[in-house]
Each structure stands twice: as C-alpha cells, then as structure tokens.
Amino acid sequence: MPEWQRMLAVVAHPDDLEYGAASAIARWTAEGRSVSYLLVTRGEAGIDGLSPEKAGPIREDEQRASAAVVGVEDVTFLDYPDGTVAYGVDLRADITAHIRRVRPDVLLTTTGELTYGERSLNQADHRVVSLAALDAARDAGNRWIHRDQLDEGLEPWNGVEHVYLIGTPTPTHGVDVSDWLDKGIASLCQHRAYLDGLGREFDPEMFIRMMTAHGGQLFGSAHAVVLEQIQLAGV
After folding, report:
1. Burial zone of 44 (CB within 10 Å; 0-12 exposed, 13-18 middle, 19+ buried)
2. What does DSSP say about strands 173-176 and 224-231: parallel, antiparallel, or unpaired?
3. 235: pLDDT confidence band, cut at 50, 70 and 90?
4. Is residue 117 over pLDDT 90?
5. Mean of the pLDDT values across residues 165-186?
6. Which of 38, 89, 170, 179 is most exposed by smallest CB count within 10 Å?
7. Residue 204 falls within a domain, yes or no?
C-alpha cells in the first residue's frame, strides 16, 4: 500500500471492521499511523435476544473496547437506524463532515458489492454505507457541496487519495498481518454480546485465521488482510 499517516474507517456497524480488518489496523497503529472509526449505526438491531434499546449501548461499549485493543481511541457514532440505513444526501453530508474534521489521507470501508465470499448476500447497510463513503470522499474536496459546513468551520478536504475496500472479490493489495493475528482475534472477541447472540457456534480465532490464511495465499505471506484500492480522480 502507498504510504499514508491518517486513516478514517467508515462502516455501518460495530464488528464490521473486526470481521475483516482489525489485524491490519493493529499493525498500522503500532507503526505510528493514526486510525479513526466512524460507525453509521450502533448495531442495535443486531442481537435477536435483546431489544434495540438495550443492545445499542452494549454494542457501542463493545466497539470502543474492541477499537482500543488495536490502538484506536477515536470512535464516533452517527446513530442512523440499524438495518434500514438509506442512501441519500444527508448520509453523504454527515460522512463528508467527519472527513473534513479528521482530514485523513485514506479511507477504509466495506465492499458495496451485492454479494461477498461464496455468493452470500451482502447486508443492505453495508452496501449503502460503502457507496456513501466513496461519494463523501469526493464531496469533501468540493466547497460547493454541503456548503452549510463552511459556516461550521469545516473547510474542504481533498487529501483523500485512495479508498480501500474490505471483503472485496477483487483485491489489489494484501497487508501482511502474520504478527498481528492475536490482536485482531482479541478485537473481535470484545463483541461478546453480539457473538453470544448469534445462536450458533462461532470460533473467532478459527474464522480470522482461515480468512487471513486465504489472503496470505493470494499475496505471498502466511496471513494477510486483503483490500481493493479505489483511486479518487479530481473533484
């Protein structure tokens, strides 16, 4: 991956980053890079046995604990409704505003493809947030889009050169995480209430090791997190 110092990760739910990228984030923060998280929802509709009113605060706490494991302290929630996030100008504007605040070099988000893995349906919020994040990365550099943000002191930011996608079927980059698997696994394990609520057996360590081993085969290391690079061209 090209050199960068500041990343903003934009995803729909708590645990989205832990299922795919936490090991890489642990490596990046250990290298002295800054990573911030922007969560569009609190994941409150994600636990069948808990009402959204109870699940939301729990999942927020779990996400903050999970981020801390991999060296991330800056975690922000937009509080859109979990499961029914709709693409629109308001969502783009909220993500744009945060990009202008954080002023990152690169963005990280999930794939917006209809399916992932073995042709499994990608969840609706993932698809919507992915597209909105890509469009917001472009919006952030244009002062005439979301003009009201200028009154809030949010100046345009066109410093985002690339967006990296997690879970893509067409990866272009692999991040060697062979020495960072324990951090990634521990980060996913922080989502205890969510994992317990799955209603089926799930081994976080096995999942992370299998996924990154496959990535390592693609990019020549024992374990790798794979990403697709999207380059932004102009405004």
Report:
1. buried
2. antiparallel
3. very low
4. no
5. 96
6. 170
7. yes
pLDDT of residue 234: 55
Write down the mean pLDDT value for the chain: 95
CB-CB neighbours of 152 under 10 Å: 11
Host domain of residue 167: 6-231
Amino acid letter for position 147: R
Residue 221 in any domain: the answer is yes
pTM: 0.95
Count of domains in the chain? 1
- With beta carbons less than 8 A apart as the criterion, state whether 62 and 193 touch: yes
Average pLDDT for residues 156-163, to the nearest whole number? Answer: 94
CATH number, domain of 144, equals 3.40.50.10320
Q: Is residue 1 part of a domain?
A: no
Q: Are 133 and 119 in contact (CB under 8 A)?
A: no
